Amino acid sequence: MGSARSRSQGQSDKRDGSARRGLPLVARSVLIVNGPNLNLLGSREPGQYGSRTLAEVEREIAQAAAALGVSVQTFQSNHEGVLIDRIHGARVDGTDFIIINAGGFTHTSIALRDALAAVAIPFVEVHISNLQRRERFRHRSLMSDLAVGSIVGLGTTGYRLALEFAAGYNAPPAPGPA
Ligand code: CA2
């Protein structure tokens, strides 16, 4: 799955000096990352993951992003290292906010967790299914304690809800000197 880019909304507030002037930092450039097997959306297990394909979900996200005035990039990979490299890339490509459904890596990947911690970009975790209603091994996420929040069990609508949240997200001010 490739990445859909739209950069028409320009650069983040951070780069126009508003951070230095103490104005709010609103997320303007959002990266949506999907992990392993999510490329299969719409093809199997509709009871668990719905009937919409990832391409359809990404199209809806692109429309919502245009209406919200944010730039969005989407990325999917079945490979842990590729996902980690893309998250590292977010540190230097102007991404203000990440929305991530790490699929099965949610429950296993310390390396993905470390990548999210390293880039220090605020993120929301999305899961299509309600993890708490599923097998015990899905109850634990290795990244949710780092996330701003999680949207779980609301189907693919969760991505759009996360995008709406990201569009209005103001990073809390960094703590001052003690
Ligand atoms: O509920 C979610 O969004 C999950 O992240 C989906 C992952 C699963 O491993 C997580 O525990 C919860 C699996 C994605 C598999 O997606 C498929 C979609 C259609 C057909 C088969 C798999």
CATH class, please? Alpha Beta
The low-pLDDT segments are 1-20
Spatial arrangement of strands, main beta sheet: 2-1-3-4-5
DSSP, total strands? 5
Heterogens = ligand CA2
Q: How far apart are the termini?
A: 46 Å
Shape: globular
Content of β-strand: 5-15%
**Count of alpha/pi helices:** 5
Describe this structure in words.
By secondary structure, this protein is of the alpha/beta class. It has one domain (about 5-10, about 25-170): Dehydroquinase, class II (Rossmann fold, 3-Layer(aba) Sandwich), CATH 3.40.50.9100. The chain is built from five helices and five strands; from the N terminus they run E-H-H-E-H-E-H-E-E-H. The protein has helices at about 45-50, 55-70, 80-90, 110-120, 155-165, and strands at about 30-35, 70-75, 95-100, 125, 150. A five-stranded parallel sheet has the order 2-1-3-4-5, with helices on both faces. Strand 3, helix 4 (about 110-120) and strand 4 form a beta-alpha-beta unit. The longest helix is centred in the middle third of the chain and has 15 residues, at about 55-70. It is globular and about 50 Å long. The model is unreliable at about 1-20 (pLDDT under 50). Ligand CA2 binds next to loops.
Short description:
By secondary structure, this protein is α/β, with parallel strands linked by helices.
Summarize the helices and strands and which ones pair or pack.
Elements: E1 29-34, H1 46-49, H2 54-68, E2 71-76, H3 80-90, E3 97-101, H4 110-119, E4 123-127, E5 149-152, H5 157-167
Parallel strand pairs: 1-2, 1-3, 3-4, 4-5
Ligand CA2 binds at residues 37-38, 40-41, 43-45, 49, 101, 103-104, 106, 127-129, 138.
